[in-house]
Write a structure and sequence with these properties.
- The protein is α+β, with helices and mostly antiparallel strands.
- The chain has helices at 3-25, 30-54, 58-72, 75-86, 94-110, 136-159, 163-184, 202-218, 222-243, 248-330, 341-368, 381-399, 419-435, 468-473, 484-487, 495-505; strands at 117-123, 126-132, 377-380, 402-407, 414-417, 441-449, 454-461, 509-514, 521-528.
- The strands form 3 sheets. A 5-stranded mixed beta sheet has the order 4-6-7-9-8, covered by helices on one side. A two-stranded antiparallel sheet has the order 1-2. The protein has a two-stranded antiparallel sheet with strand order 3-5.
- Bound molecules: adenosine-5'-diphosphate.
- Adenosine-5'-diphosphate (ADP) is lined by residues 428, 432-433, 436, 461, 463-464, 466, 470, 474, 480-481, 484, 491-497, 521.
Length: 539
């Protein structure tokens, strides 16, 4: 068998398998039907070309050349129609497509007459090369016009497209150039130009490239198609081997080979399909998760905005309530009945607690919307701590607790941070110690040296303590221990979340420690020591 016969056979097998595979994947799509028609034209042309190559009688050779041309004439028109559908420009080219099919029908009919192939004769090594009839040259001209026209459409689409789609067009274009350059080598000898059809095999490239582009276009899984393609090719080869068996031993051997190839092939396709469908399932789930995640994020943002608006609305009336309550208790509006003293103090206290909670909600919404601003300056942390302890001394006395300040640091403890936020953190930690301690003491201890490069404030209480599970969650939003409610009903579970976030943003940290329920707690707040002398704004 000659190289030309073999290349025609390969073209026929590849084209028909690929066309069928894609058609089976999507029987209803026009694009796939056109692609299949295109590949079948290539396959029909190739198989008859193969038969012509191995034919010895001139009469049959003439028949085959006419027959293969009857298929070949369809190739450029199906290609053209395919391109217009692929680029979604079918409507604009309706006339050219219809004219193309009229040409195809007429040429196909003519190809069975002497108008197309006059006779066969010896040229180069080919014993029965066709001699062109009068209509062959017009056909070649139309053939070229349609191929150039189709390619021009593709090229303009390529230049105006982007991304994935652009890549697909590139594949079709490259495939087309290679395929048609190869295909054209078939026609030189017709006009006595001594170039044999050496490029015939390149037609396979064309079919492969276009298939690849179409598969990606429709997002079919390439692995399944490749596996099926290999398996079907092996089956066809095994059947050919069986048919060509010389004797009964050969026949038996080839039958067994065919059975084995069929079984292995089925298993291979089954496994690849299963793997691919599992992966697709996982991808679908992942994209669903991604979507719901985005929705949740959007909802969370809306919630933060709502909290921020609501908190702002609550803040101003609350300030008025607190102001008037304190003016009333101080006697700014004259004397009031003794009985009213306690209710008034309760109003003031409740308004104070509410204001703190609102502050927490506002801080959370600022953190979540990324709007927390820091006005950093250089100040001495021990001094700030001492003042805060003094501020809260009254509360401690009211609760019958001993609040003590101890400075063990060997440095003056300058830090570069937002003093207001530091005060908020210290308030939160010492207030918590006061809230969660029924009796005993609270020590506020400062430690640190220049060598440590950081200064720490530990708030050590003898209160309700924390279990390991509580310790693991208290820095999260809305997390409170089970026994916290029995001691302090007004907590929001936001204070520590906000405090830690602020500490971290200023380069510091807060860690909590406790030996267990009822065994007291220690909260340690640390900040880096700075060498800076002057204040500066950080954010
Ligand atoms: P809140 O005090 O408003 O509940 P926080 O975020 O400040 O919110 O604290 C979260 C939880 O951590 C508290 O509910 C409590 O369970 C626990 N906790 C905080 N400080 C202490 C402490 N000093 N002793 C025992 N438990 C504490």
């Amino acid at each position: 068998m000659t190289f030309y016969a073999i290349s025609a056979l390969i073209n026929a097998i590849t084209s028909s398998i690929l066309g069928t595979l894609l058609l089976l994947k999507n029987k209803k799509s026009k694009l796939f039907i056109l692609f299949a028609l295109f590949t079948y034209s290539v396959a029909g042309w190739s198989i008859l070309y193969f038969l012509w190559q191995i034919e010895t009688s001139a009469e049959s050779a003439l028949f085959y050349t006419r027959a293969f041309m009857a298929f070949a004439v369809f190739i450029p028109f199906f290609y053209f129609h395919f391109v217009t559908v692929f680029t979604k420009r079918e409507k604009n080219h309706f006339l050219s497509i219809s004219t193309g099919y009229i040409f195809a029908g007429s040429f196909s009919y003519l190809s069975t007459t002497q108008w197309f192939v006059l006779d066969v004769t010896k040229k180069l090594n080919f014993v029965h090369w066709p001699v062109p009839g009068d209509f062959f040259l017009p056909f070649l001209v139309v053939w070229l016009v349609y191929i150039f026209y189709g390619s021009a459409i593709l090229l303009s689409e390529y230049l105006n497209s982007s991304g994935h789609y652009k890549l697909q067009i590139r594949f079709i274009l490259i495939g087309m150039v290679i395929g048609y350059l190869g295909g054209i080598t078939n026609y030189f000898l017709w006009y006595d130009i001594p170039i044999p059809p050496f490029g015939n095999i390149l037609v396979t490239f064309y079919v492969l490239m276009v298939s690849y582009a179409v598969i990606r276009y429709k997002l079919f899984n390439l692995r399944v198609i490749v596996a099926e393609f290999i398996v079907f090719s092996l089956w066809i080869l095994a059947v050919v081997r069986l048919v060509l068996s010389n004797n009964s031993v050969d026949y038996l051997y080839n039958s067994l080979y065919l059975v084995a190839v069929i079984i292995i092939g089925i298993l291979l396709i089954y496994n690849v399909r299963r793997e691919v469908s599992t992966r697709e399932e996982v991808q679908k789930l992942a994209s669903k998760l991604e979507k719901s995640n985005q929705r949740l994020k959007a909802l969370d943002k809306q919630k933060s905005e709502f909290v921020s608006i609501a908190s702002h609305q609550l803040r101003s009336p609350l300030t008025a309530i607190r102001g008037y309550a304190s003016m009333l208790t101080e006697g700014s509006f004259g004397k009031f009945p003794k009985k009213a003293k306690e209710p008034l103090e309760r109003i003031a206290e409740s308004a104070r607690i509410m204001a703190l909670s609102i502050e927490d909600y506002l801080s959370v919404s600022r953190i979540e919307s990324g709007n927390m601003k820091y006005e950093n300056s250089v100040f001495k942390l021990p001094e700030r701590v001492e003042k805060t302890v003094d501020d809260l001394q009254g509360e401690a006395v009211k609760s019958g607790l001993l609040l003590m300040y101890k400075n063990k640091a060997t440095t003056e403890g300058k830090v570069h941070a937002d003093e207001g936020k530091v005060q908020q953190i210290l308030h939160n930690l010492i207030n918590n110690a006061l809230k969660y301690t029924k009796e005993g003491s609270i020590d506020v201890v400062i430690e640190g040296s220049k060598k440590d490069k950081e200064i720490t404030v530990s708030v050590i209480d003898t209160g309700i303590g924390m279990s390991e599970e509580t310790l693991a969650t208290i820095f999260q939003k809305f997390q409170r221990s089970k026994n916290a409610n029995s001691v302090n009903v007004h907590g929001t579970g936001l204070g520590l979340y906000v405090a830690l976030k602020m500490a971290n943003d200023m380069g510091g940290d807060i860690v909590a420690d406790s030996e267990g329920d009822g065994k007291g707690s220690t909260f340690t707040f640390s900040l880096p020591i700075t060498d800076k002398e002057k204040s500066s704004k950080a954010q």
